[in-house]
Structures are given as structure tokens and as C-alpha cells.
Write a structure and sequence with these properties.
This protein has two domains: 152 residues, Peptidoglycan recognition protein-like (Lysozyme-like, 3-Layer(aba) Sandwich), CATH 3.40.80; 77 residues, PGBD-like superfamily/PGBD (Muramoyl-pentapeptide Carboxypeptidase, domain 1, Orthogonal Bundle). It is 34% helix and 13% strand. The protein has eight helices and ten strands. Strands 1-5-4-9-3-10 form a six-stranded mixed β-sheet. The protein has a two-stranded antiparallel ribbon with strand order 2-6. A two-stranded antiparallel sheet has the order 7-8. The protein is globular.
Amino acid sequence: MSMNTTQNYSPNFNVKKRKPNQIKFIIFHYTGMKKESEAIERLTNIDSKVSSHYLIKNNGEIVVMVPDLYEAWHAGASSWKNFKSLNKNSIGIEISNPGHNSNYKKFSKKQIQSIKKLSKFLIKKYKINQKNILGHSDIAPSRKKDPGEKFPWKYLAKFGIGKWHSLPQKTLVENRRKKISIADKKNFYHNLSKIGYSIKRSKKIKKDKFFDFTISAFQRRFRQELINGKIDQECFLISQNLAKKLN
């Protein structure tokens, strides 16, 4: 790699190599553990059955855990558009952060610089489309909240790392919490599907709960100021803007 990295290999990966053109996604995660050392221990422990390709430490250090051409175990049960079980087609990047259950905090400036550097390198190397740069909660909304609403999606989109909407702040604020019509509610879900979110629920999850999770995942990604699992006019306008951009 043409950047400074260290190695701390995980035993948790599929032995069969994949082809470079199979890599179509970058998935961001947070470690969700109080101590960075505990996160590293878990990602390299054979019994945990979890891993990622990269870990970005608190100090911005980039650690290689699984080489790119092997399938790491980071996404789990997941879907995006027509893709299922995204481990097969993605590179997983874990970022050290205690997460929602343990004093979730902002990502450090050094971490953000490393996210930029590593992402740009991977995008160029594997010709990854901007719209295929996602968070764990995007592909598994009923299970995951990471990397969460403090992840700098808007900032990263300026550098071609993920997509962002083009609505002015004034429009957003004016439409926040405004009720929407039943027709627009249906259109919102249609837009979610166009963007890539799965709106087919598992029978294990109640319908209302499933939609709450999916709306919250959308908000964590694109409307980070208010995560309430409720559709309002602001959410609808954002979804409309993105659906046009991403198709």
C-alpha cells in the first residue's frame, strides 16, 4: 500500500481469494467497545468470528487486519439493492469509537484524515462507485447503528467518499418535523428503495419496528440533527433529492 499502515492480522476470514472486480462496496463501522485494546482483541480473536479489513485507531493509525482480496467477517446479515450478505463484495473499515452504548463520541480529526486517505486509495484501486460507500446501519438497519450520526458523511462527500444531498440548509430546517401526506409517505419508501435500502422486512421483526429502524438508519446517514424514526417533510425532500441523484 502506498500509505503508512501497520499489520495485526485476524484469523477470521474466508480462505478462498476473491477477484478485485468483486469488490464493489466500502462499509464503515465503529468498534462499539469502551477500550481500543478490547476492540483489537475481539477483531483478532478466532472465537469472536468477526473481523474487518482495516481498523482506524484513535490516533489515526491504519491497521491492516485482513488483506483486501479475502472476505472479512464484518457485515453479517445485510442487504443493499440487489446485493445480499455484503461480506462477499465489500471492504470493511472499523473505526475506534465506543459507540452508542458506551458514550458515543465524535471521530477525531486524525481518524477523519485517515478515513479520507484510505477511502480514496480503495476507491481508485477498485473503481468503487460513490453510491456504494455505506455505513453498517445502511445495510443492516434492524441490527446496527454504526458508524452513527456523528460520522462525517457530509464532509466526506466533498471528497467523493459517499453521496450527499444538495438541499440548502434553510429548506431543511423549514421542513423539519412538518407532517407529510399519505401519498408522500408512500413515495418516501419508494425513494428509500431507489437509494438502496431494503424495505422487505424479516418476519421476525414487527412491521412498525422494522420501519422505525430503517427510517432511523436513513436519518443517521442523511439527517443527522434529528434521529426519531419518524418521516417528516424534511426526510421526504432529502429522499427525493437522493433518489434522483443515485439513479
